[in-house]
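So, can you check this record?

>
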Amino acid sequence: MSTLATLDLLSSELKGPQYWEALRELQRRGPLTWIEGHGGYWAATGYDVVLQMAQDWTTFSSAEGITIPRPGPDVVPYIVPLETDPPRQRVYRKQVNPELTAKALSILEEPIRQVANELIDTFIDRGSCDIAKDFARRFPGTVFFKLIIRCPDEQFQLVEPIARDITFEPPDTEKWRNAINGLREWADATLKARAGDSSDSGGVVNAILHLNDNTAEELETFADHELASGLQILVQGGIGTSASVIGVIVRELCEDRGLQERVRNDPTLIPRLIEECLRLEPPLPIVFRTTRRDVDVAGRQIKKGDKVGIFFAAANRDPTVFERPDELDLERPHYRHLAFGAGVHRCIGSNLARLQIRVAIEQLLARLSSFWMPEGAIIEYSSLQARGPSSIPLEFTRTS
């Protein structure tokens, strides 16, 4: 058995370039490696193994949590739909998916563009900003609460900072714990308010409210706290991820000014740029599953009850699938990356993420004629739920 007892890929100290270097070291050990830390788990890094595990929910289950260590369900109830498996998980997806298709979201493109411009207006006259803190971390939550949830302004001013605290504050702090309670209270109140408003139909809130309308008799109905978690996770899952990708893209464009000019002159390249940055640095690089039966994978015997870490980030840099995997290449012939996962638990918000990231980059390129990091600037990285840049000092010239 190949072991790797000293490398802690879950450590908060491992961030930024160091994290990706550590991941490469793990990948060199083979597609499936036993890790001694955190109670022991199998680390899947090869593309084929990662895809197999992600798609086989009957063997590799989410129903006992997708993180380690995880508090017991008596302390933190399991989250719908992330920590449920079919058939209950499918009830949620069938109900909510139609609200988040590319077609359903297309009518929001111009309102999303307006949100981007309003945030850019807050710093464009200064000639400098921290693009992570001033824009990337504020943009996704503003889009979600104002355009997806349609929060009144007073409610938005309250809940958007709470959502940022949950996403970007360390989970062992009082600020984070207060934010979790605040978001739970907001979700409960929002569901109750919409339930009593017969004039407000459609949208993700209404879809979640009616989950039990489509639950088969033989299935357990969704409790109130599960309905609330189904709304909360859309917040928690969407803000840090999109913010991280926007930060990665801006960093790449700063580090390669030729690429910046090329993309600015040909905005049709922006979708390719987004896909390459998603592949290179997926914001959620790993999820965990629990093995439901003894199974042989890649020549290794995985026992029932074993935890498996599915490293989507490593799969995205598998040299047997991606030529020159550590390089950004807009001419890469295919985009088989797994940044949004795979199988029944594939990211439900991927269409919204792609749309808002594209609009954000379009507007930054359109309104800033050139941008760069000042000499000596230091990029800081998060090592929390989303592992993207947390601070990117930026200087720029504005378009006339």
